[in-house]
Predict the structure.
Amino acid sequence: MSTPAVPSVLFVCVHNAGRSQMAAAFLTRLGGDNVQVRSAGSAPAETVNPAVVEALGEVGIDISAEIPKVLTVEAVQASDVVITMGCGDACPFFPGKTYLDWKLEDPAGQGVDAVRPIRDQIEQRIRGLLADLGIQAQA
């Protein structure tokens, strides 16, 4: 097996409808082609949280076409960094991966006013992650 040219990051939360979707969207925008991005949930919802879609739309990111995805062992194995956001023990563990747990409020059932601060916290964490990976954030 060859080493990937760019690092791969997987964001995991229970429903893959809020926090992990926001994190994946920000990393995709700010990391560009310099990082591979995945997101998944241990018990995915049917749709992405509408307040999350609205909050990201306010900063010019459209995730209206995204669909929550189920967490698979293959997704974890294919990732260099796994960032959990409330999925607990449902996340498989593999030696050699970097695991981070970001404690963030769950946007489920909340309106856009409550989602905005979570969105902004996630953006800041993504910028820090990019710096840790040695990747220059894109404008």
Observations:
- The chain has four helices and four strands.
- The helical segments are 19-31, 50-57, 73-77, 112-133.
- The beta strands are 8-13, 36-41, 81-84, 98-101.
